[in-house]
């Protein structure tokens, strides 16, 4: 695979701070403990939540719905106002932590009002003489002033560090306050140029290096109540890009155009996040700091969170907004604050703005269209964007911002700070099949691209390996059924299949009825059929019969039929006029042909993949048919779609033999299988008690006993709990409904415990399919953190807890031969990962060479026993423009639009700026005879050589395939969890480094 045989000496520099006694010295917090799960205080809190749930529902003729009756939101909003802003209340009321005292009488009053509101008692009639139980218990709790150093740092009993939950929040406040004391120094970097002579004898200029200039701007951050930092007085946007940096907000106000466009007045702010994390074998936790861009929304009523300036003596208030549809501050919290006579100036201003926005939403222009609400000038209220959208400021802060942050950390903490450094040998990965390995191949690739010839840019599996994989699964051939309804899509499908199979697309002219069979290679063929009635969006009353008739036309014994279908995104039309947004969303989902077709094809065991044939621009409200690009290699959606179709067919080809078992490998791996387990919770329906069953899918990638023979890929789900060929397992999963809510009242932990039992059953049944091969299990540590306590960092080296009903490990209770030889725990949560700033390479002669990026596998500098590995990845698009490598967002060029190409300048400001992504790989509970390093390398290689992507996937191939089974289910959107933690897990896992 072209892998380096020689080792390198690489050192990665990060923005992660090691927790040490010097760093945490003098840091304290006030902590109210409210007991364990069964304590009277927490039981009373749960009872209050149940009462709120009942009283917030609409009952016809009895009570209206109340979207603001959320005890936690009410309590937090009130507490933020009556304290200095640094307050955190646990959602389950396990604890409360602050940096300043809160009088017991104040707490009693807050919770007395809260209980009265929840029980629908008018505020003036709430009986304070007869204190409710919850108010009495909360007010009677005695806070403790606790040292963060004593709680966070490992003790001398050789047990791993195990900070309490409150410490994770309190340490963020302290670090943010200290960091904010020093400005970020944004030094402009200028290019170093030199003259050179071209082959034609022409003298030109080129950039050979970059150097700091004398132009430095001081950027001041302010802490917010969550523990992050915001550059509040230094907005980023088109309006500010033309002003001096740092910007003067008074000058910016006068520079605002009289009649601006929406884009002209949009802006964002720089944000620094602080998150404490623990790693296996590391004695003490690490504080991971990262740079972000936080976009400001044009309205409060359409945001989920707003930042409020309450003066420089208090942190910026990060306020969660409540309501259905149009949002605002919790009205019950405002009522309590009024009764407490608390200062609510900022909240009053917020309410005034909400009222103004509601009024303006009802205004119409002379044509009857709603008048657009533009983003106001930066003020005391700044709602944050609820989702990514077309915006004047792109996503990402860039690598240079991380280097500025690293400098700010060193200046703010001085000698007390110790930054995390990681090491790498740099010889893990080889060239993929589609990557040129020699200079001659690079030249040939460049020439073919300039000529517009077809080049494999994604790493297609060879036709022979596809055939062998299909035959190993028990089929005689693969038949790809291409279903289309636009001629342009048919053309793209023909070219997309012809080029990888070295065929001339001009010689393929199929009958639109599907009568012609086009051989692609031995054992692989294609059929092209116009299926407009089946694929068009709409009620689809005949869709089931249409699918059945079509499949019966092309199915044969021993033939694996796979469908490649045209589709498009369903959009709002005239038929949806007068409907509410939620009704439109529901109608579009019900009439989405794609998900209906997936279900009908799955019933017949036909895996499917979809190709977008027409796109829609929501701003111009126009459609565009996707046409075949001029260059044969440029239709990326077509070739990526083919890769994913092969994945759905269970194709596991010789790319993985090359990835895991290269010649002269310094990380030798025994022949072994890798099993990925994906677990997630479903959306909770408030109509039912308890939680719905967890969704579990699994994939086993099983190598041959001997090199050169075909591999197998099996699938499993807890809906159809049987190991079978991946294509069949996925079809059975997609043909079944997700398990619905039951009224058995099973709670959160009971469902997670049940998920552990389901996985153990899967592992028990797997042994019959491995034919004696050992296997390693791959799981997402975040997604399964509530399933197996024995995989937690603070439980390493400890015996199982006899009072915990959950399985300690996935194979607990199974015979040793049925257990995995190692459990490889993945973590893709970027907030918990070290952020790469730069790399230093130490050469053999002892000199060092700076590197800006790295895509290698790293480990902690001192390599303690049981340590994790970190896989850094350079996003593919970063290498094209390298935005953010040598400048901050404040210095981004807004570009220039022009019809004249010579005058046109690229808009850096609205472009995405990339930095390195990171994932953690931790082999745990590894049996003797198996090397943890070889297993970590194998996991990294299974991410590097993706099943259905040209670059790396966040998950290794077996875990990625298990995830894709779930994401492709026709009911996934209905079942997708709504809580932010679960959404973040899915977002991080399904991301690709592109």
Structure description:
Strand 24 and strand 25 form a beta hairpin. This protein is an alpha+beta fold and 994 residues long. It has 29 helices and 32 strands. The longest helix has 19 residues, at 748-766. It starts with 9 loop residues before the first strand and ends with a helix. Helix 2 (40-56) crosses helix 5 (133-140), helix 4 packs across helix 11 and helix 18 packs across helix 20.
Put the structure in a nutshell.
The chain is an alpha+beta fold and 994 residues long. It has 29 helices and 32 strands.
Strand content: 15-25%
User: What is the makeup of the main sheet?
Assistant: 17 strands, mixed
**Unreliable parts:** none
Into which percent range does the helicity of residues fall? 25-40%
> What overall geometry do the principal axes of the alpha carbons give?
globular
Distance N terminus to C terminus? 21 Å
Number of helices: 29
How many beta-strand segments? 32
Q: How would you classify the helix and strand content by structural class?
A: alpha+beta
Mean pLDDT: 91
Q: How large, in whole angstroms, is the Cα Rg?
A: 30 Å
Topology:
Elements: E1 10-18, H1 21-24, E2 28-33, H2 40-56, H3 71-82, E3 87-89, E4 95-98, H4 104-118, H5 133-140, E5 144-147, H6 148-152, H7 165-180, E6 184-197, E7 203-219, E8 222-223, E9 229-230, H8 238-241, H9 249-255, H10 262-265, E10 268-277, E11 286-295, E12 305-308, E13 317-320, H11 331-340, H12 345-361, E14 381-383, H13 399-413, E15 419-424, H14 439-451, H15 463-472, E16 477-484, H16 487-498, E17 513-521, E18 524-530, H17 532-535, H18 543-554, E19 559-568, H19 581-590, H20 593-603, E20 608-617, E21 622-625, H21 636-648, H22 655-660, E22 673-680, E23 695-702, E24 712-717, E25 724-725, H23 726-734, H24 748-766, E26 775-780, E27 822-827, E28 836-842, E29 848-851, E30 857-860, E31 869-873, H25 878-881, E32 917-924, H26 932-944, H27 957-967, H28 972-975, H29 980-990
Helix pairs in contact: 2-5, 3-4, 3-11, 4-5, 4-11, 18-20, 20-23
């Amino acid at each position: 695979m072209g892998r380096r045989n020689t080792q390198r000496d690489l050192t990665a520099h990060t923005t992660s701070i090691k927790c040490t006694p010097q760093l945490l010295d003098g840091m304290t917090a006030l902590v109210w403990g409210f007991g364990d799960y069964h304590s009277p205080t927490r039981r009373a809190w749960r009872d209050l939540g149940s009462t709120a749930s009942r009283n917030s529902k609409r009952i016809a003729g009895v009570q209206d719905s109340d979207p603001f009756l959320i005890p936690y939101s009410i309590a937090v909003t009130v507490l933020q106002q009556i304290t200095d802003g640094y307050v955190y209340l646990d959602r389950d009321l396990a604890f409360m932590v602050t940096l300043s005292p809160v009088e017991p009488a104040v707490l009693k009053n807050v919770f007395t009002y809260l209980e009265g509101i929840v029980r629908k008692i008018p505020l003036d009639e709430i009986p304070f003489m007869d204190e409710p139980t919850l108010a009495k218990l909360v007010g009677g709790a005695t806070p403790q002033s606790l040292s963060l150093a004593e709680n966070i740092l490992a003790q001398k009993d050789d047990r791993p560090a195990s900070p309490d939950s409150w410490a994770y929040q309190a340490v963020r406040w302290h670090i943010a306050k200290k960091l904010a004391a020093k400005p970020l120094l944004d030094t402009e970097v200028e290019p170093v140029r030199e003259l050179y002579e071209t082959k034609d004898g022409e003298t030109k200029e080129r950039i050979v290096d970059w150097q700091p200039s004398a132009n430095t701007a001081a950027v001041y951050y302010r802490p917010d109540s969550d523990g992050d930092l915001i550059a509040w007085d230094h907005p980023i946007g088109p309006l500010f890009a033309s002003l001096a940096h740092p910007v003067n907000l008074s000058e910016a106000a006068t520079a605002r155009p009289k009649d601006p466009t929406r884009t002209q007045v949009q802006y964002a702010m720089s944000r620094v996040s602080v998150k404490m994390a623990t790693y296996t074998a590391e004695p003490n936790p690490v504080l991971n700091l990262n740079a972000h861009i936080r976009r400001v929304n044009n309205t409060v009523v359409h945001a989920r969170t707003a930042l409020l300036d309450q003066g420089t003596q208090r942190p910026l208030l990060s306020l969660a907004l409540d309501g259905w549809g149009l949002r605002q501050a919790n009205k019950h919290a405002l009522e309590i604050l009024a009764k407490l006579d608390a200062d609510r100036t900022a909240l009053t201003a917020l309410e005034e703005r909400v009222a103004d926005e509601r009024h303006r939403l009802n205004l119409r222009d002379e044509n009857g269209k709603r008048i657009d609400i533009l983003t106001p000038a930066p003020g005391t209220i700044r709602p944050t964007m609820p989702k990514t959208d077309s915006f004047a400021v792109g996503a990402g802060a860039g690598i240079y911002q991380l280097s500025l942050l690293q400098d700010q950390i060193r200046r703010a903490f001085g000698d007390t700070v110790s930054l995390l450094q990681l090491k790498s040998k740099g010889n893990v990965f080889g060239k993929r099949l589609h990557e040129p390995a020699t200079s001659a191949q690079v030249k040939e690739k460049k020439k073919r691209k300039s000529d517009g010839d077809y080049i494999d840019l994604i790493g297609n599996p060879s036709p022979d390996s596809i055939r062998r994989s299909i035959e190993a699964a028990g089929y005689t051939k693969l038949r790809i059924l291409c279903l289309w309804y636009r001629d342009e899509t048919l053309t793209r499908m023909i070219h997309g299949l012809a080029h990888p199979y070295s065929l001339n697309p001009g010689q393929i002219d199929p009958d639109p009825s599907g009568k012609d069979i086009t051989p692609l290679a031995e054992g692989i063929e294609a059929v092209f059929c116009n299926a407009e009635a089946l694929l068009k969006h709409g009620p689809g009353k005949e869709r089931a019969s249409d699918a059945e008739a079509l499949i019966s036309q092309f199915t044969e014994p021993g033939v694996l039929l796979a469908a490649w279908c045209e589709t498009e995104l369903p959009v709002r039309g005239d038929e949806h006029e007068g409907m509410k947004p939620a009704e439109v969303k529901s109608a579009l989902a019900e009439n989405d042909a794609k998900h209906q077709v997936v279900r009908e094809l799955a019933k017949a065991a036909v895996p499917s993949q979809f190709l977008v044939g027409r796109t829609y621009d929501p701003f111009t409200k126009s459609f565009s048919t996707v046409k075949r690009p001029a260059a044969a290699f440029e239709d990326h959606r077509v070739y990526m779609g083919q890769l994913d179709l092969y994945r759905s067919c269970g194709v596991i080809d010789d790319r993985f033999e090359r990835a895991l078992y290269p010649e002269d490998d310094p990380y030798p791996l025994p022949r072994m299988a890798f099993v990925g387990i994906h677990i997630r919770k479903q959306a909770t329906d408030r109509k039912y008690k308890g939680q719905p069953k967890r969704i579990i899918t699994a994939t086993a990638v099983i190598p041959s006993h001997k090199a050169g023979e075909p591999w197998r890929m099996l699938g499993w789900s807890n809906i159809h709990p049987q190991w079978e060929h991946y294509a069949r397992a996925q079809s059975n999963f997609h043909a079944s409904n997700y398990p619905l809510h039951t009224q058995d009242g099973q709670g959160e932990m009971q469902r997670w415990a049940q998920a552990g039992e389901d996985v153990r059953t899967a592992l028990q049944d797997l042994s019959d399919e491995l034919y004696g091969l050992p296997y390693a299990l791959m799981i997402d540590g975040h997604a399964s953190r509530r399933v197996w306590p024995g995989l937690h960092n603070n439980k390493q080296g400890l015996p199982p807890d006899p009072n915990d009903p959950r399985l300690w490990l996935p194979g607990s209770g199974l015979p040793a031969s049925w257990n995995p030889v190692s459990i490889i725990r993945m973590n893709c949560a970027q907030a918990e990962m070290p952020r790469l700033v730069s790399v230093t390479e130490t050469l053999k002669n002892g000199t060092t060479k700076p590197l800006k990026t790295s895509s290698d596998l790293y480990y902690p500098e001192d390599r303690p026993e049981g340590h994790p590995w970190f896989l850094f990845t350079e996003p593919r698009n970063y290498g094209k423009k390298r935005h953010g490598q040598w400048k901050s967002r404040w210095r981004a060029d807004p570009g220039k639009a022009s019809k004249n190409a010579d005058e046109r300048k690229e808009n850096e400001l609205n472009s995405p700026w990339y930095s390195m992504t990171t994932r953690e790989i931790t082999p745990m509970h590894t049996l003797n005879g198996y090397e943890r390093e070889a297993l970590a390398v194998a996991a990294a290689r299974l991410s590097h050589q993706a099943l259905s992507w040209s670059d790396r996937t966040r998950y290794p191939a077996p875990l990625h395939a298990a995830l894709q089974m779930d994401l492709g289910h026709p009911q996934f959107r209905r079942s997708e969890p709504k809580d932010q933690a679960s959404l973040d897990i899915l977002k991080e896992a399904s991301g690709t480094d592109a």
